[in-house]
Specification:
The chain has about 160 residues and is mainly β. The chain has a single domain, classed as Nucleoside Triphosphate Pyrophosphohydrolase (Alpha-Beta Complex). It is about 15% helix and about 40% strand. Strands 1, 2, 3, 4, 5, 6, 7, 8 and 9 form a 9-stranded mixed sheet that branches. Strand 8 and strand 9 form a beta hairpin. The longest helix has 13 residues. The radius of gyration is 14 Å and the shape is globular. It starts with a strand and ends with a strand. About 30% of the residues are buried.
Length: about 160
């Protein structure tokens, strides 16, 4: 199973999102993350590395708050298990990189879901309202609609 990470830099009740410019998720507004690499010992290591690569800013594992694990499926095929973190402290500026456009700051309660993955409207409001969840998002073929969504508290 593929393991992935997703980091949301947050300031108070607002979050930075960026438009993905290439690879999986291109054209969608999202947080910073990617696949766990061979040199990553933990998902936190992967999250810190991916955050730096995609945002230009630096954080440390102790600044990560795990808020979700989301299992993403396309029909019956599991795409990846995604470990989701809030990042509240980082050094440097969040900037445009080869992978991500310049960041945009959005209030938790007014996210631009029309520019995001269709499943995001199901689980993001939960984590931005303070819940910590283990969710399952099942997309139809071609990833253009959500077939099923379920969640439970993160243990």
């Amino acid at each position: 199973m593929k393991i992935a990470t997703l980091c949301f830099p947050v300031e108070g009740d607002k979050v930075y999102l960026s438009l993905k410019k290439r690879s999986f998720g291109a054209g969608f507004l999202l947080g910073y993350g990617g696949k766990m690499g061979e040199d990553d010992k933990t998902v936190e290591d992967a999250a810190v590395r991916e955050f730096a690569e995609e945002s230009g800013a630096v954080t440390i594992p102790e600044s990560l708050e795990k808020v979700a694990v989301v299992d993403f499926f396309e029909e019956d095929k599991q795409l990846f298990e995604c470990h989701v973190f809030f990042v509240r402290k980082w050094e440097g500026e969040l900037v445009e990189t080869e992978e991500m456009a310049a960041p945009e700051l959005h209030p938790f309660n007014d996210l631009p879901y029309d520019r995001m993955w269709k499943g995001d409207i199901r689980w993001l409001p939960l984590i931005f309202s303070g819940e910590k969840i283990h969710a399952k998002v099942t997309y139809a073929k071609e990833m253009n609609e959500v077939k099923d969504f379920s969640y439970e508290p993160l243990s």
